[in-house]
Structures are given as structure tokens and as C-alpha cells.
Write a structure and sequence with these properties.
It is a single chain. About 0% of the residues lie in helices and about 45% in strands. A hairpin with a 4-residue loop joins strand 5 and strand 6. The protein is globular, with a radius of gyration of 14 Å. The chain is an all-beta fold and about 130 residues long. The protein contains no helices and 11 strands.
Amino acid sequence: QVQLVESGGGLVQPGGSLRLSCKASGFTLDYYAIGWFRQAPGKEREGVSCLSTSDDRTEYADSVRGRFTISRDNAKDTVYLQMKSLKPEDTGVYYCATLVMPRIASAINPCEVYGMDYWGKGTLVTVSS
């Protein structure tokens, strides 16, 4: 069983930066993909960024491309999301999730919001002045 724990959320002013961390434990096999998602109150969960281990491909939502960077430190079993130039619309609970058993469509969309296998409990990011 995989356990994911996010950290690093908090209150930040527009234009500021924040780095989120996702610590993975409890599973020895490498995951197929890991992604960051976010959900604002009353809104649907949406994908933010994805890292595919099969080909080291990274993907970003259009809304965050150029501002957010996903990376990982295998030695620490940790994945990061570096967020820059934060906007109020970036506010939400940020989750990390892993895909262990790829689906048919995983090669195309490895971080589909409803296809992930394990989820963390989230960390709240609030962008406000």
C-alpha cells in the first residue's frame, strides 16, 4: 500500500512562491506516474502537473505552465511542486497522487484525475493579499 503525505501549503501573497512536497512510503515498486492536483471549494478537482516515470515526461495544465515545476528526488522518495508567480485562482487544496497500475489510456494521459491509484490527504494553498 502506498502512502502519500503532502506538505508545504500555506498562505502566500499574489506573485509569491511556494514549494509543495509529497513524501511517498509503503511501496517498493516505482510508480508509473505521479501528479499534482488541486481542488477549490465547490469546484471539481483538476490536474495541475504530471510526471511520467516511463519516459520522464512532464506535463502541466495550461493555467500553470511556465509558473509551476514538478520534480522528484528519488533518494528522498519525494516529489515537489515549485510554484511561482502565484495567483488568487491558484488557491485550493493540493493533492499528490500516484499511478501504479497504468490503464489503457495512461500512455496518453497518465495523470487523469479519476485514474490515479493512491492519493494524499492534501495541503491547503491560499493565495491572497
